[in-house]
């Protein structure tokens, strides 16, 4: 009889424990619900598709390189190497680029100067944001006031002066050259910049951002400083 | 004697490790059910200490209270009256009363033990 009682109480306590644990779980870690609707899912799918196609394009270009090497193995290996070298230099921004693009001019807002507003240095954050927007819109090469933007470019405030590649920007007006892969991309860039809020953002800093019509022939200077890479190491032959 | 506690620990572990969750709309019901279960548990302990424990009363009270509490909450939701507050109030008050009685009984027992211990060396 006594034993029977303990068994029953044990079962009851087991149920109580389980209930408390479930309640605790529910209060502490609410299950994340998938709240995406069909459009959000479609958008995500589209993004993944885009990545897929980018990766495929990359694979194809690398396969082309491999093919070229294999072909030229007998004929002329040096030519293939030089070609790769030049392509990498172009990618790194060490060569001058000519092609279609858009010119952005940053000028002090004349009416604000007339009203006696003080024009301060342009903020590095604003420039960085603009750069991000440019690269988001498929810019291939950018130069700010004649300084080519490469992978290691830093836009920062040094002693109150805004610098690009550690060189201070000349006082406005200065120009930002944006190169694109083709003229259509340049037009798209122009339209999206016109529609963006950057004109207003620059005006908040007492600057006027003039976005010029896209042109076919734009010359973007090369990166002229030594390119440092602290983290890359040469691969030994045979590795 | 320790078997019931093992049951409690086993239940807690099972719930926490398997990470079972219930839909948030049933949270209210479960919280009231937990309260009812705790109330019954402490009622059972009190009855045991007062030597009036009855297995049938305990078991039926456990399940009946849980169902009644959840049912009251359900009715309250459908009628737009916060009836679950009545359940929380009733069970809460009883929980405190039961625990208070358990405390007193235990205190009296401890006192008695001390008294006995003091008396024995004299005799």
From TrEMBL, chain A:
First and last residue of the signal peptide: none
Membrane-crossing segments per the record: 6-26
Membrane recorded as keyword: yes
This protein's record includes keyword Transmembrane: yes
Pfam families with a match to the protein in the record: DUF881
UniProt entry keywords in alphabetical sequence: Membrane, Transmembrane, Transmembrane helix
Top-level division of the source organism's lineage: Bacteria
InterPro entries named among the record's database cross-references: DUF881
Family under the similarity heading: Belongs to the UPF0749 family.
UniProt protein name: NgoFVII family restriction endonuclease
Organism lineage: Bacteria, Bacillati, Bacillota, Bacilli, Bacillales
TrEMBL record, chain B:
Keyword Membrane: yes
Keyword tags: Cell membrane, Membrane, Transmembrane, Transmembrane helix
GO CC annotation, single: plasma membrane
Main location, first listed in the record: membrane
Domain of life: Bacteria
Name under which the protein is recorded: Small basic protein
InterPro entries xref list: DUF1290
Family designation: Belongs to the sbp family.
Record carries keyword Calcium: no
Membrane topology: Multi-pass membrane protein
Subcellular location(s) of the protein: Cell membrane
Transmembrane segments: 29-45, 57-77, 83-106
């Amino acid at each position: 009889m006594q034993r029977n009682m303990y068994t029953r109480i044990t079962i009851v306590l087991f149920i109580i424990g389980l209930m408390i644990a479930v309640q605790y779980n529910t209060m502490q870690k609410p299950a994340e619900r998938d709240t995406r609707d069909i459009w959000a899912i479609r958008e995500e799918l589209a993004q993944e598709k885009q990545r897929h196609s980018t990766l495929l394009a990359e694979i194809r270009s690398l396969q082309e390189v491999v093919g070229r090497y294999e072909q030229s193995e007998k004929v002329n290996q040096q030519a293939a190497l030089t070609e790769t070298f030049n392509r990498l230099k172009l990618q790194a921004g060490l060569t001058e680029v000519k092609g279609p693009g858009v010119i952005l001019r940053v000028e002090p807002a004349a009416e604000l100067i007339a009203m006696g507003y003080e024009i301060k240095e342009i903020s590095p954050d604003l420039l960085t944001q603009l750069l991000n927007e440019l690269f988001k819109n498929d810019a291939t090469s950018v130069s700010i006031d004649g300084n080519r933007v490469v992978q290691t470019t830093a836009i920062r405030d040094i002693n109150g002066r805004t610098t690009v590649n550690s060189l201070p920007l000349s006082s406005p007006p200065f120009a930002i050259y944006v190169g694109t892969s083709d003229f259509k991309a340049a037009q798209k860039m122009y339209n999206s910049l016109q529609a963006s809020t950057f004109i207003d953002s620059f005006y908040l800093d007492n600057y006027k951002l003039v976005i010029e019509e896209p042109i076919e022939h734009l010359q973007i200077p090369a990166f002229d400083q030594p390119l440092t890479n602290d983290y890359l190491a040469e691969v030994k032959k045979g590795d | 004697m320790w078997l019931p506690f093992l049951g409690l620990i086993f239940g807690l572990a099972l719930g926490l490790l398997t990470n079972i969750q219930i839909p948030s709309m049933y949270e209210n019901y479960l919280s009231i059910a937990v309260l009812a279960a705790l109330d019954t548990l402490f009622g059972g302990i009190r009855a045991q200490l007062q030597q009036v424990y009855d297995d049938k009363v305990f078991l039926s009270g456990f399940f009946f209270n849980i169902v009644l509490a959840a049912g009251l909450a359900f009715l309250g939701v459908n009628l737009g009256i916060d009836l679950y507050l009545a359940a929380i109030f009733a069970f809460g008050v009883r929980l405190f009363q039961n625990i208070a009685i358990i405390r007193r009984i235990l205190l009296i027992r401890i006192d008695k033990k001390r008294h006995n211990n003091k008396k024995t060396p004299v005799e």
